[in-house]
């Protein structure tokens, strides 16, 4: 691993420790710039792309949005929450527990903006697989009243994620970050039928 890659990994690790698992990804991953980052991104999309398409088929959520949110929330699958707990969407546990798909809860520090940003402790869902995390994402977005207004917008990924972001995240720039990721990485190609 070269010096530049070690520095980038150290920055990501410190960000994850300081800001928490979900917000570590909030340092916008954007489009990978180095050859190593491009290789990691391609490997992540090789795994996440088919899962995002499956979520689109089963739950009616644009695959581009699913992939974009997972990239932002998991920092291309490299965040501590994704690696340790297979949580690729930053989902927190409910007051009643992890929900019907997650298997446990794990306590992490995180940052909430309500409207001022501040550090809090929160319980995040733990999954047994990446597939389970993606399925739970699809289930939540397609059944929660928080996201009902987004459902008719499924043919417009940018409008869809803009509506979802109103309840999904406390970061006021969340939708813009996901849209930037979708644009810079041409994730809209995932919305086209598989060849």
Molecular structure report:
The protein is globular. It starts with a helix and ends in an 11-residue tail after the last helix. A hairpin with a 3-residue loop joins strand 1 and strand 2. It is 52% helix and 10% strand. A two-stranded antiparallel sheet has the order 1-2. The protein has helices spanning 3-19, 21-24, 35-59, 63-74, 80-85, 130-143, 157-168, 174-184, and strands spanning 104-113, 117-126. It has a domain at 35-83 and 129-190: Lysozyme. The longest helix is centred in the first third of the chain and has 25 residues, at 35-59. With 195 residues, it is mainly α. This is Flagellar protein FlgJ.
CATH architecture of one domain: Orthogonal Bundle
How many beta-strand elements?
2
Structural class label: mainly alpha
Low-confidence segments, given as residue ranges, are 1-28
Helix content: 40-55%
CATH domain class name of one domain = Mainly Alpha
Q: N- to C-terminal separation? A: 36 Å
| Coarse morphology | globular
Main β-sheet, spatial strand arrangement: 1-2
Give the overall average pLDDT: 86
Strand content: 5-15%
H/E element string?
HHHHHEEHHH
Could you tell me the CATH topology label of one domain.
Answer: Lysozyme
Total number of helices: 8
Main beta-sheet strand count, sense and barrel state: 2 strands, antiparallel
* Cα radius of gyration in angstroms: 16 Å
């Amino acid at each position: 691993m070269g010096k530049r890659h070690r520095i980038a990994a150290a920055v990501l690790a410190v960000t994850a420790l300081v800001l928490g698992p979900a917000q570590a990804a909030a340092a916008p991953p954007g489009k990978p710039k180095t050859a190593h980052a491009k290789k990691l991104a391609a490997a992540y999309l090789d795994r996440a792309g088919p899962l995002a398409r499956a979520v689109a088929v089963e739950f009616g959520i644009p695959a581009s949005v699913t992939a974009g949110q997972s990239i932002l929330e998991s920092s291309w699958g490299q965040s501590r929450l994704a690696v340790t707990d297979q949580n690729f969407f930053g989902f927190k546990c409910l007051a009643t527990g992890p929900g019907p798909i997650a298997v446990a809860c794990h306590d992490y520090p995180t940052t909430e903006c309500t409207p001022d940003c501040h550090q809090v402790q929160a319980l995040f869902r733990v999954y047994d697989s990446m597939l389970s995390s993606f399925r739970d994402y699809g289930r939540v977005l397609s059944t929660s009243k928080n996201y009902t207004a987004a459902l008719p917008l499924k043919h417009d990924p940018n409008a869809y994620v803009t509506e979802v972001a109103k309840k999904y995240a406390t970061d006021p720039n969340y939708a813009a970050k996901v849209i930037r990721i979708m644009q810079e990485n041409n994730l809209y190609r995932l919305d086209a039928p598989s060849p």
